[in-house]
Amino acid sequence: MTRVAHTRDELAAALDAATGEIAVVMTMGALHEGHRQLIRVARERSPFVVVTIFVNPLQFGPNEDFEKYPRTLDEDLAACRAEGAAVVFAPGRDDVYPGGAPSITMNPGPLGAILEGASRPGHFAGMLTVVEKLLRLTRAGVAYFGEKDFQQLALIRRMVFDLELGVEIVGVPTVREGDGLALSSRNRYLSPRERTAALALSRALRAGAGHGDPEAVLAAAGDVLAQEPGVRLDYLELTGPDLGPVPAEGPARLLVAARVGATRLIDNVPIVLRKEA
Ligand code: AMP
């Protein structure tokens, strides 16, 4: 049975039923197979999985899609029930921020200033602030996040390490459509024509991943993106596996962000760099 809590008191009462470790999957709702995969992976280890559904105003910029972000609570609750979540926490804004917008927030540091942080000022401060609050409110011992939002995952790991939060963070590989498009709640904004153009992102990452030399990786991926007029590139970057400098050889990450029509999409893949003959 899945219990639904809308207030922090209801959440506390529902959590009192937990006997072992509490696992949390944090979402902004409009749940898809990517979210459901996080719940499934969490369920494999933890009988008591809490799913949070909260569109966090703090992590949206003034010109972003907070107002029109999809809200589909009834379908989301059905998905959480089907996946065997113990609790769904779907709070209102005042339950998460009872004092209004917090005056003390997280500073994401240098890792938060690059890539998404450069394009979306304030996004990571708002994200980390709500993640820290939700980790406490849900009393989580372990939390599951998707690699789809790779920089988010890296920043959360860093926050937990730097601030001794004592929570295990588990990353889950990106779930994709059959044609490669990374699942995202924002995909529903795409027209059929835009969806076709959006496939260039995953196609570019695949093309890049076919190479071992950093320059060849970026050239191959860049070529694919340049051929798709419907895609306005924000960044295409190769980094180390933790978003640091690119290593000469071994694991690395290739990340892309672009606008397709009015919709901003991100994606990334692991890459193994090797000396090419
Ligand atoms: P969101 O609702 O977009 O804030 O995402 C909630 C969680 O689901 C985050 O940890 C995301 O990284 C994760 N997630 C979103 N899309 C996917 C996907 N396609 N595959 C795996 N995880 C995902």
Compose a concise summary of this entry.
The active site is at 35 (proton donor). (R)-pantoate binds at residues 59, 152. With 277 residues, the chain is of the alpha/beta class.
Protein architecture, described:
The protein has about 280 residues and is α/β, with parallel strands linked by helices. The chain folds into two domains: about 5-170, Rossmann fold (3-Layer(aba) Sandwich); about 185-270, Pantoate-beta-alanine ligase, C-terminal domain (Pantoate--beta-alanine Ligase, Chain: A,domain 2), CATH 3.30.1300.10. Helix content is about 35%, strand content about 20%. It contains nine helices and nine strands. It has helices at about 10-15, 35-45, 75-80, 95, 115-120, 125-140, 150-160, 190-210, 215-225; strands spanning about 5, 20-25, 50-55, 85-90, 140-145, 170, 230-240, 250-260, 265-275. The strands form two sheets. It has a six-stranded parallel sheet with strand order 1-4-3-2-5-6, with helices on both faces. The chain has a three-stranded antiparallel sheet with strand order 7-8-9, with helices on one face. α6 packs across α7 and α8 (about 190-210) runs antiparallel to α9 (about 215-225). The longest helix is centred in the last third of the chain and has 18 residues, at about 190-210. It is globular, with a radius of gyration of 19 Å. Adenosine monophosphate (AMP) binds near residues 38, 148, 149, 172 and 174.
